[in-house]
Specification:
430 residues; TIM Barrel; 8-stranded parallel sheet; Urease, subunit C, domain 1; alpha/beta; binds zinc ion; 2 domains; globular; 9-stranded mixed sheet
Length: 430
C-alpha cells in the first residue's frame, strides 16, 4: 500500500530534511518511505497537498482525558478548586461507561486537532473496571495512545501487573502518585515496580507552596536513586535551581502545561529555565475542564510567555514546534516511531489548510503554525499512514451518537454529585 502526499509545504521537524516549500512524502505500509522536493511513486494513491502545510502529528505528553464530559466548566477554577471539584466531587461518581465515553471523545477531539500521539494520564482509578474502560476507549479511537496508569491503593503491584499484560511495551507508562501526594517510600516502591515491568514513569511535581507535602521532591527522589531518562516530570514549576540541574543530569524529561499552570496559579511555565539547564521540554494539555485541548494554543501560550519573560525574545517558533512534536515523542519513548517527518518513522502526518484566510498567505510555515495556528486548519490527519481525518471530517466516527451518550453521562454524574450544569460552578476550596 503506497500513498503519495504530493505538493505540500513540508515542515519536517527533522533538521536533516528541513522545510520544503513544495515537497512530496511517500508512505509505504504505514511508514514514511521517502521525503523530497519530488518523489517518483508511480502507481501510488495520491493525496493532493497543494495549498496545505504537511507536518508531523502533535504529541501531548499529559492529559487527564477521562474528564472530557466536564469540558469548560472549570475555566475559573484555581488548582485547589479543581482538586475539590474533579477529584473530590465528580470522580467518586464515575462508572466505567463514563470513563469510556470521556476517554473516547477526549481522544477523538485530540486527534481531530492533529494530536496523533497522546499520553492519557489516568487517575480515575477507584476500581479496575475504570482502567479497562479507559483502555478500551483508547483502543477504539484511531490514534496512537500511551495509557499512563495512576493506580491507587496500598499495593498497586497486582493491578499494574494485570494491566501491563494487556498492553504493548510502548503503550503503557506508570503514573506515580509522587512524593508530594504520597510518601517517598511509596514513590520508591512504585519506581521499582515500573523498572521491573519495563514501564516509563510520569510524575507531577511542584516546587512552591500549595502542594500537600514535600518541598524538594526531585532531590528526595535523586537521593533514593529514582531519577532516570525514562521519567517525565509534569509541571515542575518553582523547582529550585539545584533540582532542575538534577533533572538535567539524570536525563529526565519535563512536560509543561502552560495554560493550566498560568491559570491555576502554579507559576510561570518553566520553559526558559529548563532550556537553560539543557532540558528540551515537551508540552501538554493537562485537563479540559480548565483549558482547551489543542496543541496550537498550548504552543502559543508557551511561546508568548517565554518571549515575554526574556526581553528580546530568545525562544523561536521552531523551538516550540519541536517541543510539541519530537520532544513529546522522546518523552514517550517513541521518537524512533514518530515526532518528525523522517524516513523510517511511522507516517503520523497532519495537513493544515494554508489557504484559510486566518493564515493566508503563508510565507513562513513554522511561524504560521505556532503564532497563528488553530484546530480549524486541520484538514487531514494520518496515523501510521492511515487516514483518520480527511477534508476536515473525522472518518469512521459517529459523533452525534457519541455526543448523545456523553451528555447522558455528564447529566448522571452531575446529578449524583449534586452539582449544577450550565452555570459557572466554583466549589469551595478545602
Ligand atoms: Zn496533570
Amino acid at each position: 500500500m503506497r500513498t503519495l502526499v504530493r505538493g505540500g509545504m513540508v515542515v519536517s521537524v527533522d533538521p536533516e530534511v528541513g522545510d520544503l516549500p513544495r515537497g512530496d512524502v511517500l508512505i509505504e505500509d504505514g511508514r514514511i518511505a521517502a521525503v523530497g522536493a519530488t518523489v517518483d511513486a508511480a502507481g501510488a494513491e495520491v493525496v493532493d497537498a497543494t495549498g496545505k502545510i504537511v507536518m508531523p502529528g502533535f504529541v501531548d505528553t499529559h492529559r487527564h482525558t477521562w474528564q472530557t464530559a466536564f469540558r469548560g466548566i472549570g475555566a475559573d477554577w484555581t488548582f485547589d478548586q479543581y482538586r475539590v471539584a474533579v477529584h473530590g466531587t465528580l470522580k467518586p461518581h464515575y462508572r466505567p461507561e463514563d470513563v469510556y465515553l470521556g476517554n473516547l471523545l477526549g481522544r477523538i477531539e485530540a486527534l481531530s486537532s492533529g494530536v496523533t500521539t497522546m499520553l492519557d494520564w489516568f487517575h480515575c482509578s477507584d476500581r479496575p473496571e475504570n482502567a479497562d474502560a479507559a483502555i478500551q476507549a483508547l483502543r477504539e479511537a484511531p490514534g496512537r495512545s500511551v495509557f499512563c496508569y495512576g493506580a491507587i491503593g496500598p499495593d498497586i503491584t497486582p493491578e499494574i501487573t494485570r494491566v501491563r499484560a494487556q498492553l504493548s511495551d510502548d503503550g503503557m507508562a506508570l503514573g506515580l502518585r509522587g512524593p508530594q501526594l504520597s510518601t517517598m517510600d511509596d514513590t520508591a516502591a512504585d519506581v521499582a515496580l515500573a523498572r521491573e515491568l519495563g514501564l516509563r514513569v510520569s510524575v507531577h511535581v511542584h516546587g512552591a507552596t500549595g502542594w500537600p507535602s514535600g518541598r524538594r521532591p526531585v532531590a528526595g527522589m535523586r537521593d533514593r536513586g529514582l531519577l532516570d531518562d525514562r521519567t517525565t516530570f509534569v509541571h515542575a514549576n518553582g523547582l529550585s535551581d539545584d533540582q532542575v540541574a538534577m533533572l538535567a543530569d539524570a536525563g529526565c524529561s519535563v512536560s509543561i502545561s502552560p495554560d493550566v499552570e498560568l491559570k491555576m496559579g502554579l507559576g510561570w511555565p518553566e520553559t526558559g529555565r529548563m532550556l537553560a539547564a539543557g532540558i528540551h521540554p515537551s508540552l501538554s494539555i493537562d485537563d479540559c475542564p480548565s483549558v482547551g485541548g489543542d496543541m496550537f494554543s498550548t504552543m502559543r501560550t508557551a511561546f508568548s510567555v517565554q518571549r515575554g519573560l526574556v526581553t528580546g525574545g530568545g525562544l523561536t517558533a521552531r523551538d516550540v514546534l519541536g517541543f510539541a512534536t519530537v520532544e513529546g515523542a522522546r518523552a514517550c519513548g517513541l521518537d524512533a516511531r514518530t515526532g518528525s517527518i523522517t524516513v523510517g518513522k511511522d507516517a503520523d502526518l497532519v495537513l493544515l489548510d494554508a489557504e484559510d484566510p486566518s493564515i493566508f498567505p503563508v510565507g513562513n510555515p513554522v511561524g504560521s503554525i505556532v503564532a497563528a495556528g488553530h484546530p480549524g486548519l486541520v484538514d487531514s490527519v494520518f496515523v501510521a499512514g492511515k487516514a483518520v481525518k480527511r477534508g476536515g471530517r473525522l472518518l469512521g466516527v459517529d459523533l452525534p451518537a457519541l455526543r448523545a451518550r456523553l451528555l447522558e453521562s455528564r447529566e448522571r454524574i452531575a446529578a449524583a454529585a449534586g452539582i449544577p450544569i450550565g452555570g459557572s460552578w466554583v466549589p469551595e476550596a478545602r
